[in-house]
Amino acid sequence: MKGHQRKKLLKQNMKGYLFVSPWILNLAFFTIIPIIVSAFLSFTKYDMVNPPRWIGFMNYYIMFKLDPSFWKALGNTLYYMFGSVFMKVFLALVLAVLLNNVAKGMGMYRTIFFLPVVLPAVPVMFLWMMLFSPNGLINRFLALFGINGPLWLSSVTWSKPALIIMSLWGIGGIIVILLAGLQDVPKSIYEAAQLDGANSVQIFWRITVPMVSPIILFCIVTGLISASQVFTEAYIMTGGGPLESTTFVSLKIYLLAFKQGNMGYASAMAWLMFLLMVPLTILVFRIFRRWSPID
Amino acid sequence: MLRKGKQLRRVIVYIILTGFAVIFLIPLFWMMSTSLKPDEETMIIRWIPSRLEWQNYVRAVRAFPFFRYLRNTVFLTVVNTVGTVLTGSLVAYGFAKLRWKGRKALFLVTIATMFIPGQVLIIPVYIMYSKIGWVNTYLPLIVPCFLGGGAFTIFMLRQFFVSLPDEIIESARLDGASELTIFTRIVLPISTPALITVSVFTILFVWNDFFGPLIYLHKSDMWTLSIGLRAFQQRYSTQWNLLMAASTIISIPMIVLYFLLQEKIVRGFTLRGGIH
Asked: pTM for this one?
């Protein structure tokens, strides 16, 4: 009887492993082994032609002490991460709250705000290069108010803000996530607050924001993680310039690894970024688990 | 008095939303309007071109191997969507409806991988592909899709499968049906909505991907539309009307897809936020 049961259990386990086997291979080859290999490579000098040569902490030493361009890239990346994510989440929250207050036409507005999210990245970037050009639409618009617009993508000061402004066009994803959260807040809470004489600003900060704060936090953290990998914008629109003002860490990693064949140093940089992101990853994982219990 | 205040507030809300909606639409309108402008009007502010130059689209398509890139992109999109739906649903079913040792732990690992920044993985993966001679083939872009697709795909499908009643599966098992039969004959047919959602997300991802093709496809005849458009821009950077015509053509399939399946796309996004 016991042997029979054990056999049945074994069969059940085998069935399960068979079904998920493609994914086990995927995790092994594209996540787990790469993480280990990349940690190893970060302690080596490796150009893909000669075998990796162990150099201890040399790459990290170079990064911290001898390579000011790394710090510049890290600074640019943090600037972009925090700038874009907080502006995006704030604007998305405002628009989601407004949408939540609309009885008619909500669907139409949502359709419009979400539309840029589905557009391919490369055409979108060419479009914004045109909008940001010195005589482009944005500067012509500013000129209406007598403002002499900056050179945007060609200006050391304005290149990062320009990329941040462009990123705001893609807030549709955050809007729909926040909107779904807002729709879960019971209407009675708002009515009670109104009866107590609270005004709209008070209601926004005292009720709306606290009620959806886990979702806001989730959007901020996932936003930071994805913004830390900002690449295509710089690669396509600015080439990292002017004067390295948009050279982000991911662009640096790409150039080191795929243009200069410096795999060891590039891996060290990638690992440092990974370590910086680990607390955020753990945080977002925790929030996510609380929402979507596994069993 | 109170009613009036409420109405006024409603009007203000609509005005603000409409203002933002216009701001959101202007770039798109500008793209299409520029794509139809005659050469001499591209650098001036003109909302509607003095004459609609449809010929720009023909010129743009002829200025680079558009149809070859289109074929490559469609090929990748179709193959990867098929692979993702096929293997992703298999894996998700294993997580949702089968009981096996380590299931919970492996699912947690799967969720965690959704949040790992990809840049730490890409170098070793590239080295691996390069060592087995797969750089300059489509395999690096295809193989992962046939191994379950990705964490998000599996997560999304699992959530759907979990919601299916256990009874229909149990009774089929009692009738002696094999698990694979149950999966293909019973579970998949009633899961079309979820499969469509996953397909749409895969299509959007593959069509819009830039980084993957950039590092793996170095031969120009293998390029996708995104990479091809980049080369086009480097050659015709001053001809905004042609560049915008090409950009519009590449964007239109995704816009159409969006208008056809908007609800599914939006719901998929909110699911990512953990709300059902």
From this structure: 0.90
Task: Compute the count of residue pairs across chains A and B with CB atoms less than 8 Å apart.
Answer: 259
- pLDDT above 90 covers a percentage of chain A that reads 64
The amino acid that residue A247 corresponds to is T
Mean per-residue pLDDT, A88-114: 91
C-alpha distances in Å from residue B231, one per residue of B36, B70, B135, B238, B262: 21, 14, 20, 13, 31
Question: Cα distance from A139 to chain B (closest Cα, Å)?
Answer: 11
Contact B85, B198 (CB under 8 A): yes
Q: What is the mean pLDDT of each run of 10 residues along chain B (276 residues)?
A: 72 93 96 90 82 91 93 97 95 92 91 85 95 95 94 90 89 88 91 92 93 94 95 86 94 95 86 55
Same domain, A14 and A96: no
- Indicate the average pLDDT of chain A: 90
State the residue range of the domain holding A18: 2-41
Residues A26 and A158 in one domain: no
Residues 180-199 of B with CB under 8 A from A: 183
A233 and A109 together in one domain: yes
CATH number at residue A76: 1.10.3720.10
Residue of A41, A119, A177 to mutate when probing chain B, most B C-beta within 10 A: A119
pLDDT interval class at A113 (50, 70, 90)? very high
Q: Which of residues 38-77 of A touch B (CB under 8 A)?
A: 38, 41, 48
Determine the angle formed by the axes of helices B55-63 and B2-35, rounding to 10 degrees: 60
Residues 6+ apart with CB under 8 A from B211: A231, A232
A14 and A115 assigned to the same domain:
no
Asked if the C-beta of A93 comes within 8 angstroms of chain B's C-beta atoms, the answer is no
Query: A57 in a domain, yes or no?
Result: no
| Shared-domain flag, residues A71 and A36 | no
How many domains does chain A contain in total?
2
| Residues A147 and A249 both lie in one domain | yes
Asked if residue A265 and residue A160 are part of one domain, the reply reads yes
Contact in structure between A71 and A250 (CB atoms under 8 Å): no
Residue B193's H or E segment, with its range, is helix B192-208
Q: What is the ipTM of this complex?
A: 0.91
Among chain B residues, the shortest Cα distance to A137 is held by: B45
B contact residues 118-177, partner A, Cβ 8 Å cutoff: 118-128, 130, 144, 146-148, 154, 159
B61-269 topology per CATH: MetI-like fold (1.10.3720)
Distances, alpha carbon A143 to alpha carbons A3, A130, A166, B46, in Å: 84, 17, 20, 15
The full set of domain ranges for chain B reads 2-57, 61-269
Cβ of A30 within 8 Å of Cβ of B121? The answer is yes
Neighboring chain A residues of B111 at a CB cutoff of 8 Å: 285, 288-289
B235 touches chain A (CB under 8 A): no
What is the per-residue pLDDT for A1? 54
CB contact under 8 A, B28 and A41: no
- Looking at residue B276, its pLDDT comes to 38
